[in-house]
Design brief:
The structure holds two protein chains of two kinds. Chain A is an all-alpha fold. Chain A has helices at residues 2-17, 19-43, 49-77, 79-83, 90-111, 114-122, 127-153, 158-174, 178-181, 186-195, 197-205, 211-232. The longest helix of chain B has 15 residues, at 167-181. The chains are: A mainly alpha, B alpha/beta.
Chain lengths: 238, 307
């Protein structure tokens, strides 16, 4: 556990030792703030629905920027060779990398709390829905992180890592879109709907956190972290 | 201490290691020599459990590395410096070494003591608060070595520790390796022969994935011919009549021609320089240089790794 924390701390430091961390957070806050405010006064309701609706698309570009260098940079500079020859299992290193991106996600989301605070000042939004929305955002962001880390672990090029992650997240997002689902036979449409990030996110946004939605996100996270560990670990041989 | 048996590792069709076996005892300082692409780095990466071989056996300090359970334990016994000393550039030397110390499982109470030890040993005192990105190649290499030593491992593995350094830095690192070798088993790879001769008690020459020679530097030199000498000749041009006349000289074991250079292997006791010089001058080939020396590690290396 100590070693996981050691790596997590080191990773978080490196986010904020470079301009990248600050740039990503600032870009995220400026865009989310601007897009939200733009529609907020037109709708004229004290709701954060439009804020949460922005997140799946915005995270699609922000999260890969956070995860793109996580493994790629280590592979490129060769530090991965030192990291993976420490007496620590690959699973722990993968978890540490995940936690550091996860903490970064939490920092970004905490900084957006200004928005619900402002809305509460003006009107009286449904607190339950806001809390559900944030839980949904954490789950969604974490799933994106797991995908991003896996892709980052199979390439040494950060740009490729970024673009492939965006593409995969986009596919997972799109398969639940009704435009796509309508063109498919029912059986396939059901699968698409089940696999999609957006259907599960939308259902949480309604204010109901169902076990199946939570389990869906947790399985996605575990699945991609497993692929990540596979990609960086040494198997036993004979 | 280290036992390697019949190691095979292929990258596609290319065999980087093709049946490598050897055994190392505690306290040996071993140089793995070979031309670029011979399989040195692949071998070291397998020894540190970073790569897995296609087949073969590695036993380190009694632990079989094919067992995933043992891999962690084995890693803890080894200090490893990969080629070109990869480090986290955004950390300071102290931050980095503490990070490595924690990852190697050093208790928080001991870590500053261990840090001071390696900083002292590797001559990093002046630079301990410097950011790694600002360090010269020589200092980076020292930080890399300090990193490999901080947990006081039994085995230290260094991949080309002196490549890319200037002559002064080379000597400093060489002295440091000698110092480490007094108390630990050290494996280092290199393609610089003088280095290996100066630091190692044993040499493995590896070529095309196979071990082609194994012994002390002196043994290998003797094997290459204790009583042999090489005569290196440079001429302006080589005509067709020259070689037959040279071959006729008594006491010549072997003649090799590379462009306008001729390398002759002869017996040590039998000095044939006069005869050779006379022939070349008579044939008017323009003698530019003629040197005789005892067969050394370099000749052995070239002999074993050509083609």
């Amino acid at each position: 556990m100590n070693k996981i924390l050691t790596i997590t701390k080191k990773e978080l430091n490196s986010y904020f030792n470079s301009p990248l961390g600050y740039v990503v957070v600032s870009v995220f806050l400026v865009i989310v703030g601007w897009l939200f405010i733009q529609t907020f006064f037109i709708i004229g309701q004290a709701t954060l629905r439009s804020f949460f609706n922005l997140l799946p698309i915005l995270f699609m570009f922000i999260i890969p920027a956070v995860t793109m260098s996580s493994w790629s940079e280590e592979k490129k500079s060769g530090t991965v060779e030192v990291l993976m020859t420490f007496p620590v299992s690959a699973v722990k290193v993968v978890m540490a990398k995940f936690f550091s991106s996860f903490v970064f996600l939490l920092i970004m989301l905490v900084l957006t709390l200004a928005i619900p605070m402002m809305v509460s000042d003006i009107g009286s939004p449904d607190k339950g829905i806001i809390i559900a929305g944030y839980i949904g955002a954490i789950l969604l962001g974490s799933a994106y992180i797991a995908i991003g880390l896996w892709i980052s672990s199979v390439t040494r090029n950060q740009i490729i890592s970024f673009l492939v992650t965006v593409t995969i997240i986009f596919i997972f997002y799109m398969v639940g879109n009704s435009l796509i689902l309508d063109t498919m036979p029912n059986s396939i449409a059901a699968v698409g709907k089940f696999l999609s990030f957006s259907t599960h996110f939308d259902s949480i946004l309604r204010g109901v956190i169902s076990l199946s939605d939570v389990l869906y996100y947790i399985s996605v996270i575990v699945f991609f972290l497993f692929l990540n560990a596979r990609a960086v670990s040494l198997k036993s041989w004979k | 201490m280290i036992k390697v048996e019949n190691l095979v590792k292929k990258y596609g069709e290319l065999a980087a290691l093709d049946g490598v076996s050897f055994e190392l005892n505690e306290g040996e300082v071993v140089g793995v020599l070979g031309p670029n692409g011979a399989g040195k780095t692949t071998l070291l990466r397998i020894l540190v459990a970073f790569l897995e071989p296609d087949s073969g056996e590695v036993v380190i300090d009694g632990l079989d590395m094919s067992q995933q359970l043992f891999q962690q334990k084995i890693k803890g016994k080894i200090g490893y410096l990969p080629e070109s000393a990869p480090l986290y550039d955004d950390m300071t030397v102290t931050e980095y070494l503490i990070f490595v110390g924690k990852m190697q499982g050093i208790e928080a109470d001991d870590i500053y003591e261990k840090l001071a030890e390696v900083v002292e040993k590797c001559g990093l005192k002046e630079k301990k608060n410097a950011e790694i990105s600002t360090l010269s190649k020589g200092y980076r290499q020292r930080v890399g070595i300090a990193q490999a030593l901080i947990h006081n491992p039994k085995i230290v593995i260094l991949d080309e520790p002196t490549t890319g350094l200037d002559p002064n830095q080379r000597i400093e690192i060489r002295d440091l390796i000698k110092e480490i070798g007094k108390s630990k088993t050290v494996i280092l790879s290199s393609h610089v022969l003088s280095e290996v001769k100066a630091t190692c008690s044993r040499v493995l020459i590896i070529n095309k994935g196979k071990i082609v020679a194994d012994g002390t530097p002196e043994e290998l030199e003797n094997k290459g011919g204790k009583n042999k000498a090489t005569i290196h000749i440079e001429v302006e041009k080589i005509g067709s009549s020259l070689l037959p006349r040279l071959e006729a000289v008594e006491g010549i074991n072997n003649i090799e021609v590379i462009e306008n250079r001729i390398i002759i292997v002869s017996d040590m006791e039998n000095d044939i320089r006069k005869d050779i010089a006379r022939i070349i001058i008579e044939e008017e080939h323009g003698l530019l240089e003629l040197v005789r020396k005892q067969v050394d590690l370099e000749d052995v290396f070239i002999n074993l790794t050509k083609e």
